[in-house]
TrEMBL record:
InterPro entries: DUF2259_secreted. This is DUF2259 domain-containing protein. The lineage of its organism: Bacteria, Pseudomonadati, Pseudomonadota, Alphaproteobacteria, Hyphomicrobiales. It comes from Mesorhizobium abyssinicae. It comes from the Bacteria. Residues 1-23 form the signal peptide. Keywords: Signal.
Amino acid sequence: MRIPVLICTWLLAQLATVATADAGDVAELEILGFSQDGGVFAFEEFGVQDGSGFPYANRYYIDTSGDSFLKDTPIRVRLDDEAATLDQARLQARQKGEAIVGQAELAANRGITAGFNAITELSADPYRMAVNPRPIFSPVDEPLEFRLDEIPLNDTEGCQSQGEINGFRLLRIEAKDGGKTELVHEDKSIPKSRGCPNGYRIGAVQTFSMQGLSAYAVLIAVRQYGFEGPDFRWIAVTGRL
């Protein structure tokens, strides 16, 4: 039996609607690397904004000693043109970043991705990551372990209609000291640059070595309400060892 063309068209439209419903905007993560001395860590997030369809690319350059942004960063590019491409947005962000730390220097000192859990990973613990910091076997380094706790901050200005709002606390567990914990970061309030975050998960641990292990960056995915579904963006917490 032949199915009428109009019914086929309707079915295809319904399938397309289901496939795109609540898609949200999940920014892709590109770990760029460290400066030659490990003093700066850089990463990029990029994607197509849900709702508008505009491509964007953001680059973050962080002082690993103070865990603070370098002057004139982050670099944020959004091309408010539906005909613009993601490659164009990324190129503009890269060109602006050359004045901060050159791409060649970052690529030459990318470090090691010691652990990585994609946002789509269902079996991993989103609040804990323990890694061997370098691919040396048998290991010569103490394990690096991080644990994340969400902190309710529902009184955040401008976020009252965005559901449960959370900050976070990040701890480093010292294996050699019998599980002693070190507070790496704790939100007292939500910075405006983070918007209205609903939740967090540890996405990656990047390490850097010179004579020995000397710096790390913990990449954290931030979940927010988006126009078409949950949006995910990236932040990093850095430190020296």
